[in-house]
Amino acid sequence: MKRTLSILLNKQSIVGFLFLLISSHIIAQSVKGWENYSTIIKKSIYQDYQGMCKSAGDGLNFPFLTPGSSQYADELWDWDSWLSNVAIRQILIEKSDKKLSQDMLKYEQGCVLNFLSFASIDGWIPIVIHRQSKVKLLKPNNIFETNMHKPCLAQHAAFICKENNNDAEWLKDKFYY
Question: Which of 102, 54, 61 is nearest to 80 (CA)?
Fold first, then answer.
């Protein structure tokens, strides 16, 4: 009886999961559904993006971007900072404000530079840096047993360089040789 119930629940779970998977793709890919979400997301980001800019201080030596002004008050996350940067850069392009765009550059670069300042010679880079983080306390004894920064750090740096006339001078002294 238990085995039959377990198999039935598993089949129901699988069917339910497949239904959600298929229906979510249909809803998400409908033009009208996407336009509604796009409008809501764009409005929110336009209102909130300046609150995503955080000043340097404590364990974070450079100003940086958070992936949301109230949800992540003082945390620098790996891929979140990169994709937040992409969204903010799109806003700046639409606004066509060169001064605002130039002012944002220190926050964009700061995301990458903060992570590089926590990098170690063995390749370890943290997945997240909290304002109070200390390198020696943050790094695990065995770097291969924990989650660490993903390869998007290089993509983030390349994105910033590309958006700023291929200027990479800001990175020059921040790598291990």
Answer: 54
- β-strand pairing of 128-130 with 75-77: antiparallel
**Most distant CA pair in the chain, distance:** 70
From residue 92, alpha-carbon distances to 4, 75, 104, 121, 169 in Å are 58, 23, 9, 36, 22
d(CA 171, CA 115): 12
Residue with tokens 């291990």: 176
Q: For residues 83 and 78, give the distance between their C-alpha atoms in angstroms, rounded to a whole number.
A: 9
CB atoms within 10 A of CB 83: 15
Residue 64, SS3 per DSSP: strand
Contacts with 147 (C-beta within 8 Å, 6 or more apart), sequence order:
127
The rounded distance, in Å, linking the Cα atoms of 105 and 90 is 13
CA distance 149 to 159: 17
Q: Model confidence over 114-165: pLDDT tens digits?
A: 999 888 888 888 888 888 887 777 788 888 888 878 888 889 999 999 988 9
- The pTM assigned to this predicted structure is 0.74
